[in-house]
Amino acid sequence: MVISTTLIIVCILIIGIWVLIEIKRLKHKLFAIFLIGFILFSYFSVAAIFKDSEINFKTSEGLIEAGNIYFSWLYSVSMNVKSITINAIKMNWGVNETLDLGN
After folding, report:
1. Coil, strand or helix at 36
2. Count of alpha carbons within 13 Å of 36, Cβ hemisphere only?
3. What is the spatial distance between Cα 82 and Cα 85, in angstroms, rounded to a whole number?
4. Burial of 9 by CB count in 10 Å (0-12 exposed, 13-18 middle, 19+ buried)?
5. CA 8, 12, 16: angle at the middle one, nearest 5?
């Protein structure tokens, strides 16, 4: 009886430790995925914004101007996402009762 109780406690501890390690690994995976997504988003957004511009990235004035342009673009994108989300929430998402299927 004592051996089976001890075995159950040891199994619970092993499972608990395994779950904690998996949770920690999941956090690292999620952070890595977030970081990769952030890097890809930054690269493609900078490439799209500055592809036709004549900004000199070798001077401090050019870097400041590029930063202002990029962050103003980022702000306008976030405001557009906010506006789209608000409009989607305000829509009537109920079932249309007047739908006639030709019966």
Report:
1. helix
2. 6
3. 5
4. exposed
5. 170
- The count of residues in the chain is 103
Select from 24, 70, 15 the least CA-distant residue to 43: 70
Within 13 Å of residue 95, how many CA atoms lie on the same side as its CB?
2
The answer to whether the beta carbons of residues 70 and 49 sit under 8 Å apart is yes
Identify the pLDDT of residue 79. 96
- DSSP calls for 37-94: HHHHHHHHHHHHHSTT----TTSHHHHHHHHHHHHHHHHHHHHHHHHHHHHHHHS--S
- pTM, entire model: 0.60
pLDDT tens column, 25-40 = 888 888 889 999 999 9
Upper half-sphere CA count for residue 72 (Cβ side, 13 Å): 7
Tell me which DSSP letter residue 33 carries: H
DSSP state letter for 17: H
